Amino acid sequence: MVWITAFFTENSSPKTGLSPTLTSYRVSDNALILNAIGMIEIGSGYYKYNFAAYDEDEEYIYVADGGVILSGAERYKYGGSAEADIKTIMDDVNDILVDTSTTLPTTLTTIEGKIDTIDGIVDDILIDTSTTIPASITTIDGEISIIDGIVDDILEDTSTTIPAALTIIDNEIAVIDGEVGVIDGIVDSILIDTETTLPATLTGIENKIDLIDTNVDTLLVDVAAIPTDHLELEALMGKNSVYEHVFDADHNHTGFIQYCYDSLVNKQAHDKATGLLYRFKFDVDYTGTNPTVTKKELMA
């Protein structure tokens, strides 16, 4: 059973004393369920109808007609069953009942366990804030003091040591700049030499080499013209040669000796037969047309 209500107005004011009728259709099959059924007045413009044949699994629409005494939008009231919404609400209510009897208690138990865990953590935090954290802060303070000392040293270095070192570096850079300038001048001179002086020097050397080469060529020609035989060479040198029979210590003939002489009395003789060289002492007489040579003795 469901009560269907309607509210009627006339000129925007609640209207009483009406005899409205109600017409309703079932949405699922478009069936006419109520056909101009009279409604009962409640009061203050409200009217009702007891829908005894209402099926909660169905959805309905209705039109309430206030009668010809009303006009325009005030005559008809429209509506429909909120079965779908009601069913959803009922399902939600049933879920809530289930939750309150099973899910919520379990969840509350879980929450209580987590609260206990959080409480333990908070206790540990309180211990840390009273002991561990202060000790850590003390350690940090000590390290900050050490860092502060290091920073002070750094500041001192930046105000004294580093500027002094920079001054030394600047001076060394100035010296290096001077040396670079000297080197640059030397390089410039080298470049000038490689462009002018060295080429000119090389040209002079090449000319001298050409002259030496010419002289060597001439010398080679002259050397080629020199006799290879020592007698011919001696004759070319203006020396005289004398042939003489040679005998050994047993008076055996050993061949001929050709020897040369000049103003010296000690000469070297060559034995053509044996190929031996001897040194002799001579007496030389230059008074005649041809010099007279007398061998005196064999020398060691």
Give descriptors for this structure:
alpha+beta, single chain, 300 residues, 4-stranded antiparallel β-sheet
Give helix % range. 40-55%
Strand order of the largest sheet: 10-11-12-13-14
Q: What is the N-to-C succession of helices and strands?
A: EEEEEEEEEHHEEEEE
- Strand runs, count: 14
Overview of the structural elements:
With 300 residues, this protein is an alpha+beta fold. Among the domains are: 2-81; 230-299, no CATH class. Helices cover 50% and strands 28% of the residues. The strands form 4 sheets. It has a 5-stranded antiparallel beta sheet with strand order 10-11-12-13-14. The longest helix is centred in the middle third of the chain and has 143 residues, at 83-225. It starts with a strand and ends with a strand.
Write a brief caption for the model.
The protein is α+β, with helices and mostly antiparallel strands. It contains two helices and 14 strands, in the order βββββββββααβββββ. Among the domains are: 2-81; 230-299, no CATH class.
What is the topological layout?
Elements: E1 2-7, E2 9-10, E3 13-14, E4 21-26, E5 31-38, E6 40-43, E7 46-51, E8 60-65, E9 76-80, H1 83-225, H2 230-236, E10 240-247, E11 253-261, E12 266-271, E13 277-285, E14 292-299
Antiparallel strand pairs: 1-7, 2-3, 4-5, 4-8, 6-7, 8-9, 10-11, 11-12, 12-13, 13-14
